[in-house]
């Protein structure tokens, strides 16, 4: 088994990364930040998901020497010109309060009619290790922002987002349903063969 560090401080995101990746990369032993000595997390200062994912993955590699994977993700709302985007976690302020973020976003979109409530979840996932080029992939899940908060699954903005073709929010899907269509699922399924190959070498 080869150890790979999943460098996220978000427990629910980490659980998704782990449950999607572990079954599709043979021989991988997935570690979380709780399994390695603590190190200072980098500030997410880049303007793109890719940039921030690389920043977090490189910090993990530098601190631990382990092959490392990091995810930077968020919701991009058409009517807000792509925001909250990379600011999704802190949309209502530095406290990273999910419920406050959701209430703020719903309020901002109150006067936006149904036909203009399009949005996408986006995830960039970076994989870095010593002696090889950094890799970063992106997955997207198109859909729309509904007008209320619904569901108890998932995390973050899942309670107000319905994926294209679904009446239920992504917080009302089973984990299998969410992983099959999610931004994170798509990115990780693209990354998996690259990680598998790196672990063989
Ligand atoms: O940076 P790490 O430590 O990984 O954890 P984080 O929660 O700060 O993660 P991000 O910086 O990538 O911020 C992403 C935010 O976007 C939202 N988000 C991302 N993926 C999501 C998903 O699948 N469902 C709902 N919200 C999501 C959620 O609010 C996250 O806090
Ligand atoms: Mg973050």
TrEMBL record:
Return the EC number: 3.6.1.66
UniProt remark on cofactor binding: Binds 1 Mg(2+) ion per subunit.
One Pfam family matching this protein: Ham1p_like
The residues responsible for catalysis, as annotated, are 72 (proton acceptor)
Q: Which InterPro entries match?
A: dITP/XTP_pyrophosphatase, ITPase-like_fam, RdgB/HAM1
Q: What is catalysed by this protein? A: dITP + H2O = dIMP + diphosphate + H(+); XTP + H2O = XMP + diphosphate + H(+); ITP + H2O = IMP + diphosphate + H(+)
Q: Which UniProt keywords apply?
A: Hydrolase, Magnesium, Metal-binding, Nucleotide metabolism, Nucleotide-binding
Q: Which residues bind Mg(2+)?
A: 72
Protein origin, superkingdom: Bacteria
Residues the record lists as binding substrate: 8-13, 73, 155-158, 178, 183-184
Q: Which cofactor does it need?
A: Mg(2+)
Summarize the protein's role: Pyrophosphatase that catalyzes the hydrolysis of nucleoside triphosphates to their monophosphate derivatives, with a high preference for the non-canonical purine nucleotides XTP (xanthosine triphosphate), dITP (deoxyinosine triphosphate) and ITP. Seems to function as a house-cleaning enzyme that removes non-canonical purine nucleotides from the nucleotide pool, thus preventing their incorporation into DNA/RNA and avoiding chromosomal lesions.
Indicate the family of this protein: Belongs to the HAM1 NTPase family.
Oligomer and partners: Homodimer.
Protein name, please?
A: dITP/XTP pyrophosphatase
State the organism of origin.
Kribbella koreensis
């Amino acid at each position: 088994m080869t150890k790979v560090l999943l460098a996220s401080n978000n427990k629910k995101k980490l659980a998704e990364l782990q449950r999607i990746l572990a079954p599709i990369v043979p021989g991988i032993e997935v570690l979380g930040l709780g399994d390695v000595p603590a190190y200072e997390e980098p500030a997410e200062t880049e303007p793109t998901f890719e940039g921030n994912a690389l920043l977090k993955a490189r910090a993990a590699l530098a601190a631990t020497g382990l092959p490392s994977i990091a995810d930077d993700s968020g919701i991009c709302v058409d009517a807000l010109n792509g925001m909250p985007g990379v600011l999704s976690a802190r949309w209502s302020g530095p406290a990273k309060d999910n419920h406050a973020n959701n209430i703020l976003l719903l309020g901002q979109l109150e006067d936006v009619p149904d036909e203009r409530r399009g949005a996408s979840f986006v995830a960039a996932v970076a994989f870095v290790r010593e002696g090889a080029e950094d890799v970063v992939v992106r997955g997207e899940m198109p859909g729309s922002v509904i007008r209320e908060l619904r569901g108890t699954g998932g995390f973050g903005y899942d309670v107000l987002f319905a994926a294209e073709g679904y009446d239920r929010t992504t917080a009302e899907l089973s984990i299998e349903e969410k992983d099959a269509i999610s931004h994170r699922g798509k990115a990780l399924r693209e990354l998996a063969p690259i990680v598998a190959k790196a672990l063989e070498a």
